[in-house]
């Protein structure tokens, strides 16, 4: 958790520090990320970072949690209030997930990198809590679909949320197979606008939506 010194920074200084730290952890896996580079990029004294956070892990946990909350807030705020069908609901959900990555590449890449941190004993406890946090977000979406009676009433919400989360990740994997390029490279491709990227990944979203419909209806 951030210390009071960090929370009491001006909005401009706090934002500059967060932007630099996000870029570092998005560019490098946890072990390779450097507090020295963050300090240099944020133009602060080396000791200042320990006035903001306890250590590297503390900073990383703050950034990953921040990124996850920002992504799911974006998705929740932009979902249509009354989608006509489950197909429309799922397409909107998965499209917004990709759009967030395209519009916020540092945040999107950090979250994707975090999902790959599977053999890091230092982060084990946090990664377990992070998975619970993301599962709770998808559970909210699943509950919304259940209230609209889009999904069968005999389906357990935890199973439905598991499917939503799994298929959201599978869209990226399926795109890599179809396009023969890494999703992360695609996210960071500055030659394409967010809208152009959405158009290129639309067929992958369509395919996974149709597959998921068979499990939920």
Key descriptive features of the protein:
single chain, 217 residues, mainly alpha, Tetracycline Repressor, domain 2, globular
Describe the structure.
The protein is mainly alpha-helical and 217 residues long. It has a single domain (64-216), classed as Tetracycline Repressor, domain 2 (Orthogonal Bundle). Helix content is 74%, strand content 0%. It has 11 helices and no strands. Helix 2 (11-27) runs antiparallel to helix 3 (35-42). The protein is globular. The mean pLDDT is 93.
State the CATH class.
Answer: Mainly Alpha
Helix content: over 70%
Q: Quickly give the structural class.
A: mainly alpha
Shape: globular
Number of beta-strand segments:
0
Report the sheet-strand fraction. under 5%
Major beta sheet summary: none
Q: Into how many domains do the coordinates divide? A: 1
Low-confidence stretches: none
Number of helices: 11
